[in-house]
Amino acid sequence: MPELPEVETVRGDLQAALVGRRVTSVSALGARTFRRPPGPAAVVSRALGRRIEAVDRRGKYLMVRLDGGEVVVLHLRMSGQLLVARPGEATRPHTHAVIGVDGGHDQGGSEVRFVDPRTFGEIFVSRADAATGAVPELCGLGPEPLDPGFDAAALAAVLAGRRGRLKALLVDQRRLAGIGNLYGDEILWAARLRPDRAVDGLRRSEIGRLHESMVTTLSEAVVQRGSSLADEGYLDLYGRLGSYQSSHRVYARAGKPCPRCGRPVTRVRLGGRGTYFCPRCQR
DNA sequence: AGACAAGCCTGTACGC
DNA sequence: TGCGTACAGGCTTGTC
Fold first, then answer.
1. Within 7 Å: CB of A35 and strand C?
2. N or C: at which end does chain A have fewer Cβ atoms within 10 angstroms?
3. pLDDT tens-digit profile of A5-47?
4. Strand B nucleotides, any atom under 7 Å to a protein CB
5. CA→C1' distance for A152 and B16 (Å)
6. Helices (H), A25-67
């Protein structure tokens, strides 16, 4: 399940591979992938012939910025992959979109293919705000945890006046953008905070720890090019695995010793999601 | 065979 | 009252 570190890895790969290239073909194959308005025909007509200016990320969304202000927005959701391929190369099952660009592969052009068995992922086209570059559909997202301006005070402002459990807030994209089930658990372990802690009972020192853990956990996961677990299909643009899974402390490690205190990691169900934590050293 | 995994959306219930 | 929070269900398919 791609979260911020995985999406950021793919973003970097796409940026390096696509900027300056022109879109020479768009195949919108999967109806469900293009379910969001304005739909598949709009993606094709508004992207075709455009030059790619940048590839940005907002939360778990990728934004391919085209000249003229159009933006192709992609979300991998659970099982989506973006893979570079040579034109004519065999198409994998569950390929729902193919974007062709000029240049590369010795000038024969390249393709970026969207493969997504569960079809939760989506692609749509939007128009960036001319002044800010913001995409209107993504305006409801919370702040970026790795934004340099996102300090402990900014996190405290996100938490202020909120109720409920800490983990539910961490994975709520309207509060913070990009954290999902896996990194939510890893961040809370690093912060030594229980996932079911009440948001409104956090001390200032605990918020400081949470901020520090958020930044270090996500940054290190980006350096390690994300997590590729056995039961998920995360790969980078070139089909390579990430390596942060070897640094997981609690996620999917029920019964295994906590790396800090040795007590077995517990799994509970929180907000309908499997949640892993150490009941001894997370308070 | 059926439970499970997950992100995100929607509908509904509930409590401060 | 109303808002925000919790929870369940839906979507989907590969894996155990």
1. no
2. C
3. 999 999 999 999 999 999 999 999 999 999 998 999 999 999 9
4. 4-9
5. 28
6. 40-47
